[in-house]
Amino acid sequence: MRVNEAPYQIEPGWDLLRGQMSGSLRSEAWRQAGCWAVDCLEGYLGPQWARDVLLSDDPLRRYLALAPHHIQAFAWLLELALRLTQAKDTSGIAQIISSLRKDRHLSNITHEQLMLEVGTLACSTGASTKFEVSTPGHPNPIDLVVETDSLHMPIEARVLFTDIRFRAAQADLDRLTDTWWRLQVTQNLSIDLNIDDWQQGVDSILALLQDAATEAATSAGEVERSWPSGRITVRPAKDGPKGRLNGPVLVTDGWRRTKQRILEKAAKDYGPRPPWLRLDVLDGLWQFTPWANYPLADKVQTVATQLRHDLERRPTIAGLVLSSGAALAQGTFLNETHTNPTSADAGIRRLLPGGRLRETMIVPLRVEATSDVDFWLRIYNTEPKWAGAELLHLDLPSISALFPGFEQKGSDPDPTTC
Asked: What pTM was estimated for this model as a whole?
């Protein structure tokens, strides 16, 4: 019997992941590259790492557990292995690996991955990278320093996640969605569920939903339940479940938390060489705000204007590179680059393997930092081809074999170790 046919007979850990990956119903290329990534990460992170993550309640568990079957989770796992392999001889990589091993929370893993992302993309354009670089007279090291013949760029990396209230609302909506779908499938019902807000409380709504579903299944007739901010309509499904769920709109507080994090970093003394701040904003700014629907040029202008206003008289960072992260591409998107010749502000959108995309805003805050913008544009223009180049370098299956239909566009990276 294959491992993934009896997942509960093997203790959670690398062997379980390896068995599920080798038994995946995806392509042979997927299985080969996936097993390589599992073997690779076990070597870097240690034999107990996967077990500890899979038995935890941290959100990282979901990423790891889904990797053998889910496209975005697979891409996450594969890229982590590729980046660690590319950077294995880089100065400071031991500190990153040590941090990955010791702190197995998604917040820390994502921070270390962001450092690896910038460092390996920079290496792929011919630059050299050092991680965890000590600065004389300062207690904390700079996350990374990138250098070329004409460039010396200290960089601080940070990731901003959703706040507790947003995560609680998302968890409530997930519980409701799971129950709504399960009742439709198991009892052959169509359930229309419309909710304007959470005033009723998710537990109360779930109880009403369960009660209405039970009555409809028993009576074989239509049943309704309503309250001031919602309504449930349940009826037998003659041709399979066709119900609709319209839940409360998830919203985030937009720029406030992003601004707070930037101001915290800008308040520090970095010495004579102010760093660039590389920030991944994963708190819903790119999904749940009006700004998220702006054209790329308008996004850049809005961020740049707000940032310069917020940091007036405090230019202790050279500039800001703000990104959506490698986000799921929900909708139709095209690669696009925007540059402002007057201010040097720039934005770049690139489609990535695994049905993802990244939008990146680049805002220099000091005159001497304007010449750095081209470098940021160059490294994120190589990103669509980066994974494919590394796979080829390691004699692993091609990116087109792993993600059929993905068209690699962008600058050609140099697939070498850093």
From this structure: 0.79
